[in-house]
Amino acid sequence: MKVAIIGGTGFVGSYVVESLVAAGHEVSLLVRKGSEHKTPDVAIWRKVAGDLDDTAALDAVVQGCDAVIFSVGLLREFPKQNITYENTQYQGVVRVVSAAIRHDVKRLVLISANGVKIPGTKYQETKLRAERCVRESGLDVTIFRPSVLFGDPKGKIEFATQLHRDMVVSPLPAVGFFSGFKPGRGQVLMSPAFVGDVAEAVCTAIESPATIGQTYLIGGPEILSWSEMIRRIAAAVGRRKWIVPMPIGLMKLAATLFGWLPSFPVTRDQLTMLAEKNIADPEALEQLARRSLTRFDTDSLAYLRMNGPRE
Fold first, then answer.
1. What 8-state DSSP symbol labels residue 293?
2. pTM exceeds cut of 0.90
3. I want to staple 203 with a disulfide (CB 3.0 to 4.6 A). Which of 19, 143, 147, 305 is the partner?
4. Homologous superfamily of 2-150+193-218 in CATH?
5. Residues paired with residue 175 on neighbouring β-strands, in sequence order
6. CA–CA distance from 179 to each of 186, 189, 274 (Å)?
């Protein structure tokens, strides 16, 4: 099968590309200027230079393909550079759907996110509007809504690496977020899933007509609190970390005052979503990945010892 992938140079997309190639599929890859070095180190059938605003590039990348995968998402906006949730997560999907229709590509897989809703943050709203767009497109659609994903970032942005850098390596205590006013209540909960498992699930979905029309909530084998994830990351790099409870409301106040600084580690919207449980049953992922799921533990986080920032 010939598969076009939008976002294949990103963290999740690069793993999807590798899984597709390993399964014998031919990949047509959109490569944004400046991301050439992020291209997965596998045999790519076709590379097209361009971005989500480039209609000609989108036409070229989907032409002759049997399916298209959209795996693009932002952690934060940079409006002065026209990097916004609206343009990337919604309008980008609209343009890709239009290109698929023009070139008679019937199959589409959208990697969305857990917790999308309206009303919500701009991130959540644009993700949900993108889902509505693909459902109404007339294409054969499968949607994935993953919880937080982890795995060797291979030089890209990744959740556990960020926590290692920002909270574990720092000589300061780590921050244990909670909602409400009393520590121990309102815990931040997540179902961290290994990105390689998710990539295998996406590959299965492309091959399986039974997944058409389905929306899958995707989570790993455990539900973990924010503090437990920090402790496991610290253990993976041979450290013990003191964790200081921090109400999300107080941190949101700081983000309101200083979030305009590019160096500020978190946005107000990110904190709003953090307060919402980001969990999912592991059954769907296990069935689609067709293997036992990878736990968020010392073994699976070993890449932090090699890739993480040095003290």
1. P
2. yes
3. 19
4. NAD(P)-binding Rossmann-like Domain (3.40.50.720)
5. 244
6. 5, 11, 9
Nearest Cα neighbor of 142 from 118, 115, 107, 114 is: 107
50-to-5, 30, 86, 109, 162 alpha-carbon distances in Å = 13, 6, 19, 20, 28
CB of 30 closer than 8 Å to CB of 57: yes
- 223 CB contacts (<8 Å, ≥6 apart)? 189, 190, 191, 279
Render pLDDT for 48-99 as a digit per residue (tens, 0 to 9).
Answer: 999 999 999 999 999 999 999 999 999 888 888 888 999 999 999 999 999 9
Q: Give me the residue label for tokens 């230079």.
A: 49
Number of other CB atoms surrounding residue 104 within 10 Å: 10
Roughly what angle, to the nearest 10 degrees, separates helices 92-102 and 122-135?
10
Residues 199-237 have pLDDT tens digits of 999 999 999 999 999 999 999 999 999 999 999 999 999
CB contact at 8 A, 190 and 226: yes
Is 70 exceeded by the pLDDT of residue 252? Answer: yes
- Determine the Cα–Cα distance for residues 224 and 190; give it in Å rounded to an integer: 5
Q: Residue 234's pLDDT is what?
A: 97
What DSSP element (H or E) covers 252? Answer: helix 248-258
Provide the H-helix boundaries in 37-173: 55-62, 85, 92-102, 122-135, 159-163
| pLDDT reported for residue 310 | 42
Q: What is the pLDDT of residues 154-206, one digit of tens each?
A: 989 899 999 999 899 988 899 888 886 666 667 899 999 999 999 999 999 99
pLDDT band at 265 (very low <50, low <70, confident <90, very high): low
> Which residues in the chain belong to E strands, given as ranges?
2-6, 26-31, 46-49, 67-70, 107-111, 140-146, 149-150, 174-178, 189-190, 193-194, 215-218, 224-225, 243-247
In this structure, what token pair is assigned to residue 64? 């002759």
Task: Specify the 3-state DSSP secondary structure of 195.
Answer: helix
